[in-house]
Amino acid sequence: MSATPDLLYSDVEDDLRATVRDVLTDRCPASAVLARCESDEPYDLGLWRTLAAGSGLAGLLVPEKLGGAGASAREAAVVLEELGGAVAPVPFLGSAVLATTALLGCDPQDKRVARLLEDLASGASVGTLAVPLTYGPGVSFPQTVRADADGVLTGTVTSVADAAVADVLLIPATGPEGPGLYALASDTPGVRVAPAVPLDLTRPIADVTLDGARAHRLAGSGPAALEGALLAGAGLLASEQVGVAQWCLDETVRYLGERRQFGRVVGSFQALKHRLADVWLEVVSARAAARAAADALATGSPDAPVAVAVAQAYCSTAAVHAAEECVQLHAGIGMTWEHPAHLHLKRAKSSELALGTPGHHRTRLATLVDLPAAG
Amino acid sequence: MSATPDLLYSDVEDDLRATVRDVLTDRCPASAVLARCESDEPYDLGLWRTLAAGSGLAGLLVPEKLGGAGASAREAAVVLEELGGAVAPVPFLGSAVLATTALLGCDPQDKRVARLLEDLASGASVGTLAVPLTYGPGVSFPQTVRADADGVLTGTVTSVADAAVADVLLIPATGPEGPGLYALASDTPGVRVAPAVPLDLTRPIADVTLDGARAHRLAGSGPAALEGALLAGAGLLASEQVGVAQWCLDETVRYLGERRQFGRVVGSFQALKHRLADVWLEVVSARAAARAAADALATGSPDAPVAVAVAQAYCSTAAVHAAEECVQLHAGIGMTWEHPAHLHLKRAKSSELALGTPGHHRTRLATLVDLPAAG
Amino acid sequence: MTTKTTATTGRGGLDAEEVRRRVRAFLAEHDPATTDRAAFLRARFDAGLAWVHFPEGLGGLGAPRALQSVVDAELTAAGAPDNDPRRIGIGLGMAAPTILRFGTEEQKARFLRPLWTGEEVWCQLFSEPGAGSDLAGLRTRAVRDGDAWTVDGQKVWTSNAHNARWAILIARTDPDVPKHRGITYFVCDMTAPGVEVRPLRQITGEAEFNEVFLTDVRIPDAHRLGDEGDGWRVAQTTLMNERVAIGGGAVPREGGMIGVAATTWRERPELRTPGLHDRLLRLWVDSEVARLTAERVRQQLAVGAPGPEGSGLKLAFARLNQAVSGLEVELLGEEGLRYHGWEMTRPETVDFFGHDAGYRYLRAKGNSIEGGTSEILRNIVAERVLGLPSEPRIDKDVAWKDLPR
Amino acid sequence: MTTKTTATTGRGGLDAEEVRRRVRAFLAEHDPATTDRAAFLRARFDAGLAWVHFPEGLGGLGAPRALQSVVDAELTAAGAPDNDPRRIGIGLGMAAPTILRFGTEEQKARFLRPLWTGEEVWCQLFSEPGAGSDLAGLRTRAVRDGDAWTVDGQKVWTSNAHNARWAILIARTDPDVPKHRGITYFVCDMTAPGVEVRPLRQITGEAEFNEVFLTDVRIPDAHRLGDEGDGWRVAQTTLMNERVAIGGGAVPREGGMIGVAATTWRERPELRTPGLHDRLLRLWVDSEVARLTAERVRQQLAVGAPGPEGSGLKLAFARLNQAVSGLEVELLGEEGLRYHGWEMTRPETVDFFGHDAGYRYLRAKGNSIEGGTSEILRNIVAERVLGLPSEPRIDKDVAWKDLPR
User: Fold this and answer.
1) Which of A52, A362, C35, D205 is a Cys-bridge partner for D342, taking CB atoms 3.0 to 4.6 Å apart?
2) pLDDT score recorded for residue C246
3) Is residue D165 included in any domain, yes or no?
4) Residue D12: what pLDDT?
5) Among D74, D128, D242, D370, the one annotated catalytic
6) How far is residue C91 from each of residues B76, C83, C242, measured CA to CA in Å?
7) Which Gene3D superfamilies match (chains A, B) (predicted)?
8) Same domain for A228 and A313?
């Protein structure tokens, strides 16, 4: 184990949180998210422009010299807590985390890589990393797309988060030079992006089909760039899950503090109080785990793979539990479409699968911390 | 799945329960069990004589023509529920279940087998099956004892339940004729029975060392006789676990119905009520599972291996949970030596290991019901 | 299911033989192959073969309930149409026993026949947005106005309201007495002016239920069931029958949610992991034990010795449906990210096991809420089965209007 | 642990440099190698180096608490004896802060020095058989008799009573007022006539604790701590310090119960099964997360911004100790059937991790009871952290003597 991680929030991080929260309170209330779920435009790209360019979130992880904020995973984690709490339908995870960290794992000295990063950072384009959302750190390099010597891609990638609004797709493919990341614009001939019906209404997925689409292999790309992006994505998703769980807890406490049955405030019933105390303990524990992962990613700690696996294994389950308790303790109203609890339940349950299930991360830990399987 | 099992208690079974309960209420209160734990005689052989000969429990599973009651696993299960509730320190499991069913799996036409069964049935002798108490159905035949052509045994069997008071040991050993069961008197030269310090004070275990001890190979014995005894033992242990769990529930409900804190009966606090409701549901569920196993054993149903594995996997855990909640909800007094809760906790936890852990039985089920493991 | 000691001979010497004879005589006069369905059902009712344990003249023969299975078997064998009991379950399971017990002769004569034939569908107007677990706290007001009552309020979680001709309704008629004592029970005409039904969409995207808004709805006093102020006691009959209905279905091994997950496990080896294997086996064991527990309850009922275990069945199945469907989503991995579709539909009957894993996961969340939350059921077990004391209650002796809101 | 913004300069310009200078000056005069242990400790107290945040003259320098680590590091480096803090934890952690805050000058002067040096061991007489979670319901009576009090009652769960010279004691002095207001706080001489200590054997077979029977025990009024009737408030200071002490230890990765199980797993491959693997990994994750949560609490304290998370730590560690030790017994299989021995011993200090898996399993059961049950802690979290309303209380405004028993 390396140095003790800094598990607190810095003043800068607190300020960033306040900024994001102000925008979301104003622009992304639950009613708006719900209404958008029933529209043809599941993403709120107006909100994304405000956050991306106005608040500089799109380039949080991009170095300042490439037009970004030069911040670290710690700050991105704080943003994800807020976005998770609001189940905000914006492509932060795909563009500002997965695509950005994948590019940073290539050669940022390379002009193409640098320009892609600049465009993502400015919000001029939206990107995503074309892997199934369920891929987590430690999976083998995907074999579903082949590249020829000219960078022409053929194959399919299913269930890609944020692909439906991405201008730029980063596609892991295997070509004559071996596995690498290939970039193309989503309107390139031969590219088809077909939205799927997602369980999580607020993070759409799409299937990407490449039928002789011309792409550019990125300098310095390879399995390590992909693995780095998946590790960062998994570690930061834990903070989003903390945000989801915290919202579920807060909303349930608020509701039970108001609702009366049997002449009493429902929140005064001891069995419910104890269950909420347990949820609270899981949320504060998840927060510590997510902070440790973000700090390890931010400092490039050698402990990062362990910290990320711990955070994902814990926070996925904590978020699902908090969301399930939120629905149950809201009872009837929690089962309705008009109450936003279901959006958080769907996000929590889908996120349990995203970037590696808790079981996947526990299996990773077995190797990382030397607790080998039987036989 | 075969015919629907009869999950109720017959009138005969209810009468048997009443008889056993009367004796135990009279002769085996918790205070007496506790006092005996601190004595040099952990078994209550006086009580055993009363139950074995007086109430005919020792020969419950023995056919009438061999001096037994000719009853079935259903009746033995009812007895075990009562013995479990009282954590009665008597060798029913070792003698009347394991040794008896092992002998019944040999050739009961054989005179030696028949005489052994008669002696066990009459209570004239106490027997046990010399396998580690942790062996469950489906384990491979033990290889720790070898027999020569004359039936002379050499080897060790550790952690044998009820060995310390057994007059007759049935020892699985491998001789020139292959694996089989060998019977010997425990005072045979070359036999050493060394009591171990058990976690469960009310079911002592002992290590049996055989150093050239002369035994008799039983006619018709083989791995099937051992497997049959372990299957019956595991299935019936589930009913003992139901008895342990039911005692824990009843005693906790009783105590919380009397104890006052904060000016209220503690049993009126909703969080505790809900936990007890959950324990209750587990106890009634465990009872259904244990009845199904007993009925399947009694009727020789082909579904018995499944019913036993289900019952053991469920009842072990239910008993441990009930005992743990019993200690916790008794709080301080439940942590003391003077309160019997700890005897039930120790019985429950040891029984979780006995005759196969819940995990062992789940693994058996994977094969029995075609839910194969990964890879 | 085999019965052990149930009496099968009823009043007037009605036994299985006699009932069978009557069914055959009925069939001889009404050939299912040539008789119009509605006419057949009406005739069956009039012949006392609808529910044999009901009185003569009301669709029954005053015979033991167990003989109904004889009737059903004969009619099914003859290819007779049934009354589509799933579609009219609220009428059959809740309204009918209540009308039978508390209705006037006129009410029984008017309502039971078309209820049973399915020509008039019934729904239930009990729950309100502010009165869920605390049903007796309901606010819907009924004010006497001559020979009729004027009803205003809002009800919720009403299945089939949009198809229903009649509703059973409870409303507050006296706010000046404690809450349980100021309620009256009515039959409400769903086609009356002022009844507005709106679909209530739920987290699955479907709208199984409705909200019902009642604005100056006139109900004749002749449609009151039971005495004024006695509605809570009348409603207990209705609710008791609801719980029996929910917990009562027989389930074969792997017959519930676990069967779906087990099939997926068997058919798709590529999804298996050691950790999921252990969880699946645990839930398989729990499901099999719940099935045996339900079977044991049925055996107890069959010998006329019902145990308290029934109260726990709904708790157990809710937990299992939720845990198993949650595991199934996880097992499916990438496929678990998807949903069959979010278009709002209005299914006629409830489906716990249909569509895809995501649907099952979401729908199962309701299993611990509808028909009594798991929290209320745990209270019931603790107090009525275990005999633990109830909590301090402050709402039992105060006039409803003075309760804190 | 790094501190971020903690003030490290105290009154009188005391900073780390100055404190270090004083320690070195002290060591120059009192060579640990040649000074008698008791004499060394007394001199250290008199030099204000015992607990630097205490006032001058009472073992301290009026310096910031954080500077104590500077003192301890210097003394440890010099090979100085310590006061064996684990053995006298109740005196240091509970009695001392209470005496400091509520004691008279005479009491402070009399008690603190031998308390700190360990020459006088302290114990705590709070819990009673009928007053556990509801400590304020205690029955031990103290009746005024001139300059003294006469105490009768029974206390329980008293560590170290058989070694103790003094006890902190709460007793009821006025049964005619509500329970929290009729309690007074005393220092009790454990060598006084009428004090009888009996070992209390627990489920592990050991007797870590005692029962203490008080029969006509005389306590001079000069040994009252705080005002008559104010004992509940005084006791809050004591209990607050107990909770901090229990939750406060730093734990390295695998430093707790999980480390024992992980070592067994690594060293004994023959015990491994797939199902246990998944459970071990889950508990490993939970243990690591609990460790991080505790670390986060310490970092909050270090920057002077304590969060509410501290309330949850004890809950988490109790659950983990129980789950991990339970798993360990199961993992060990046949070995788990055995115990190291049932002879009654009276250990001086608590050992959660010692002996064998069975001992750890049994001892861990106490973790959710001692020092506040997990049920009480959940109430505290729900009410003080989440702000949920308390339940209806009937015992707050009634005279203690009129409460239902």
Assistant:
1) D205
2) 41
3) yes
4) 57
5) D242
6) 47, 12, 11
7) Acyl-CoA dehydrogenase/oxidase, N-terminal domain, Butyryl-CoA Dehydrogenase, subunit A, domain 2, Butyryl-CoA Dehydrogenase, subunit A, domain 3
8) yes
